[in-house]
Amino acid sequence: MFDFFKKKQKNIRNDIFSGLTVALALVPEAVAFAFVAGVDPLVGLYAAFMIGLITSILGGRPGMISGATGAMAVVMVSLVSKGNQMGLTFESPVENMGLYYLFATIILAGLFQVLAGVFKFGKFVRLIPQPVMMGFVNGLAIVIFLSQLNMLKFEENGVKQWLEMGDMLPMLGFIGLTMLIMFALPKITTKIPAALTAILVVSAIVIFGDINMSTVGSFIRDGGGEGLKGGLPSFQTEIFSLVPFTIETIKFILPYSLILAAIGLIESLLTLNLIDEITDGRGNGNKECIAQGTANIITGFFGGMGGCAMIGQSLINIKSGGRGRLSGIVAAITLLIFILFASQYIEMIPIAALVGVMFMVVIGTFAWSSLRILHKIPNSDAFVLVLVSIVTVFFDLAIAVIVGVIVSALVFSWENAKRIRARKRIKEDGTKVYEIWGPLFFGSVKTFISKFDISNDPESIEIDFMESKVSDHSGIEALRVLVEKYSKLDKQVKLIHLSPDCIALLEKADINIELNIERNINDPRYYVVTDKPILEKGV
């Protein structure tokens, strides 16, 4: 019993410290994604707070962190811009009209996500092949790395340029110090959270050493913001008065809401799978869909930009020891406290410390094992792995996963299409038997038909499906056409050893084919010992 409470106390401590670390890392990310989407930093911070809190309580994977994300922010740019243009066409021009269209879109996207969970679409994440997962993880690590490189640049006349050498060297030095602390501290003790310690140490050196370098506050102001000062999120009643409920509005926001819902669910479910692998746990995908949708609906009504699971912050949380729901709750509430009361202190944190933490996340995220096995796995899997990584970097996480799944499915279909075989033999009564091996589906239909010598075959033919299965309508149609060709030549065809589900499919498609199906035949697959006498107990 003592060990149980001791373990419980340790988990609570780890969750609290990891939550504090995540909260610090959430600030610049939420602000940066708000700038990407073209909205005020507070819109991103409110989203990080509300989505993080709700999904931590209701989500299907304890320890997973959600908030405003770059994948969704990229889609929001066009939405906000076009929404602002539509606002200017009103009789009384409305400023920031795109923001209210964004809120309405996020609410609708949330509804789609809830429906996905209710109808249990979350289970389809199991269809994502391992090469796609590894490519996704590698591409994500590269994306996080490249996004952090932007912190080493400054904007002049609308053009991003690298920092001058005098500013770059201190920045790199403190990034290196952060990474060194995170690497070395766990080897000395695991009782102190490495990421949080690194942030505090580097911040103390910069603040008390009066070193001039980029901080969270300067980052916000350079992006056009005024700082982290803000109050509690408020209900956006303007959504109902400003956004017209018309067919034109639905046509405008519907495509964006579908895209955002899909991106959010794909990224969240993949993050759930990744955290499952790291922690040897099992999350609930459908529950996560409902939690993400609920969070987006609420954040839309209360002035947030929407979001989904954040892989970088989730990994920071897991690496820091956060395993329970408490870690996400602490991170969200701490973030709100930062906004309300401690904004001036958070603005003093050097960007270098946060970049160093993210670089360590990159190192931990990248599947280095994929480089070792690349030449050992099938060429098709290696191609998919590299393709998904590249598409993730240059396009989008969701697009990369969809492309990977499609390519993997095509490769699988092609490989199975080549596997269909037909062994041929002649029975004593002159009947020719075709023993089919391999699946009969759309990809293998032509090869299947080519196996038969219709004009030269005898008058009696048997097609044995002991080692085959009719999988789809294309297979059914191929069988129907084959039987018709033999019938036109007055030749009798019998289909034997068809499975019950195949028979049901064939009868549903063509009732006449029942005459060609042989049912009363011994099937060695289904032998059951039923003819032995049952011995009474005690005999």
SSE inventory with pairings:
Elements: H1 2-37, H2 41-58, E1 66-67, H3 70-88, H4 97-118, H5 130-149, E2 153-156, E3 159-162, H6 165-188, H7 194-208, H8 216-222, H9 238-242, H10 247-279, H11 285-301, E4 308-309, H12 311-319, H13 325-340, H14 343-346, H15 351-365, H16 369-373, H17 379-394, H18 397-417, E5 421-426, E6 432-440, H19 445-450, E7 460-470, H20 473-488, E8 492-496, H21 500-509
Parallel strand pairs: 6-7, 7-8
Antiparallel strand pairs: 1-4, 2-3, 5-6
H/E series: HHEHHHEEHHHHHHEHHHHHHHEEHEHEH
Helicity range: 55-70%
* Low-confidence parts: 1-7, 525-539
Number of domains: 2
Structural class: alpha/beta
Head-to-tail CA distance between termini: 51 Å
Please, how many helices?
Answer: 21
Please tell me the overall pLDDT: 82
Biggest beta-sheet profile = 4 strands, mixed
Biggest β-sheet: strands ordered side by side in the sheet: 5-6-7-8
* Morphology call: elongated
Over the alpha carbons, how many angstroms does the gyration radius reach?
Answer: 30 Å
The number of distinct β-strands equals: 8
Beta content: 5-15%
